[in-house]
Amino acid sequence: MGKIEEIIKILKERFNLSEEKIRYEIKEKLYEFGGLISEEGAAILVAREYGIDIREIKTFSFLSELVSGMRNVNVRVKVFKSLPLKEFERKDGTKGYVKIFLVGDSSDIARLVFWNEFAEETENMKIKDGDILKIYNARTKENVFGEIDIIVDKNTYIEFDNKDDLPSIDVLLEKYSKDKYQRLESSLDSIGHYEVVGIISAIYGNNFFFKTCPICGNKVGKKEEKYFCDLHGEIEPKNSLFLRFEVNTFNGNLRAVAFREVAEKIVEIKTEELEKFENLKEFLENLLLGKIVLIRGRARKNKFLNVIELVVNEVEDVNIEKEIEKLIQSIEN
Q: Which burial class, exposed, middle or buried, applies to 197 when counting CB atoms under 10 A from its CB (0-12, 13-18, 19+)?
């Protein structure tokens, strides 16, 4: 919801005004200032005349706009799948909890993550599939799959919304389902789940490991030569493998990224063995360039590179004869 719509909603609820009257007043304000302000600016002035504190007006981001590291994020989403509350043991022996809801809007899907005491509170919130949630002041973090999580913390508050104008549960589940990959028949230019067959034509970067917590597997941060997990404090991290590469397909080139066991399956060597190589990039290029791969994953927008890339979830051996048959069929059709 944009700022204008939020202002209209507040004025309707508090002053029992019709939307027609509010929009008329906004147009009048635009006319008064002779085009010196935008429609949003006019709406803000109207709201101020009614005594509305502009700081109350919250606008929502689309999920597709989120990047890691954001704070005070507001989103409006539909819950389409609730995962079971999970319990784990911290390094000091105490118990921790995590609760994850899969949510979506018209632009994308994401994980809504509650840790520890916030995870336990979800039992009382009675969140269920199909609920529309307005989430305020959350933060974002990239998860181990390279996707963006919405994190609930002490500053976050959540409201239920009765207006259901978001995609249905079935549509969101189809976006999420890893059983419904679409064979990529053109260039990779939109988000979704895709199956791709091609040849690895480039390996990107020089660093192929990232540090993770040995307890929960989350990516960890470094401070003064020490590593810290958000959940488990100071830890001795382990290396996890990630691989950024280019795949040449019948329809052109695309960028892909694979993490952990999926990356190991592409390389066919364990992380512990790869750590021993002094010039790992040279080794990987000799090993992988020209390799034919069948990969499946979710396409996402890489905000930093401004390209869409495939986050690989599955790797499968390629049946060359079968793929040639599929290619011939696609050309004939």
A: buried
Of all residues in the chain, what percent are helix, strand and coil, respectively (each to 5)? 30, 35, 35
Determine the Cα–Cα distance for residues 197 and 63; give it in Å rounded to an integer.
Answer: 28
Segments of the chain scoring below 70 in pLDDT: 1-2, 55-56, 91, 144-146, 177-191, 319-333
The pLDDT value recorded for residue 141 is 87
Distance of alpha carbon 26 from alpha carbon 8, whole angstroms:
10
State the residue range of the domain holding 36. Answer: 3-56
Model pTM? 0.60
Tell me the C-alpha distance between 185 and 75, whole Å: 33
Q: What are phi and psi of 177, to 5 degrees?
A: -55, 125
Residue 317 in 3-state DSSP? Answer: coil
Pairing of strands 307-316, 252-259: parallel
Tokens (6 digits) for 113: 């993550």
Which tokens belong to 305? 């590179």
Strand partners of residue 210: 240
Sheet (strand 221-223) strand order: 221-223, 226-229, 233-235
223 in the same domain as 165: no
Please indicate, yes or no, whether residues 75 and 27 belong to a single structural domain of this protein: no
DSSP H or E stretch at residue 31 = helix 19-32
> pLDDT at position 280, please?
94
d(CA 223, CA 200): 36
* Mean pLDDT, rounded, of the chain: 85
For residues 129 and 203, membership in a common domain is answered with no
Distance CA 180, CA 186 (A): 17
What backbone torsions phi and psi does residue 271 show, to the nearest 5 degrees?
-55, -40
d(CA 138, CA 63): 12
Residue 179 in tokens? 């059983």
Same domain, residue pair 189 and 271: yes
Convert the pLDDT of each residue in 156-209 to its tens digit.
999 999 888 899 999 888 777 654 666 666 666 666 778 888 899 999 999 999
